[in-house]
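Narrative summary of target 7.
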Amino acid sequence: MNLTRKGEYALRSLIKLGIAHELGRAHLSVSELAESEKLPLKFLEQVLFQLRGAGYIHTKRGKYGGYFLAKDMKSIRIGEIVRLIDGKLAPIACASLTAHEKCSCPDETHCGLRMLMIDVRNAISNILDRYTLADVVEVTLRKIRRDGGELPFQSGSSQTVSIKLPENFNPVDPSEGFIAELQTGKDTSQ
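Modeled conformation, tokenized:
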């Protein structure tokens, strides 16, 4: 799996639309979306066009128009968005369920690389297909609030969230990951 910029922008846009929805904003203009996520406007428009064509978002025309989610966030699985924008989840085509291609290996049945990549595909799929846009939005908002960050799209707020990070902050530490944060929220709510 290779998440392209287009795939990343699609997911970031959907998350931002979900956050706006949760905070009571009916819709966001394309320029608000681009500004809030620091995305190139023309490229973002192409991404939004594809999401709209697939039925994930709608638009409202006019001065007070913009983009909004067309589906309930709980029904949008992250894996389906990645597949829509970037195609297969498997790192190699011979391990793909949705876009299988015979590989150049002379013995595909006994190919250790293919077998390993099937497990990689399954691990990726198990995570991306388990979680919904609602899960990601909920975790994002919870972490912003917990860390004392500024919520986006509030009157008088800047679009960027600035939080002082601890000196030992490691952005790729597993404890900073989505699943760890999801579990933290579940542990504290019991």
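The CA atoms of residues 33 and 184 lie 29 Å apart.
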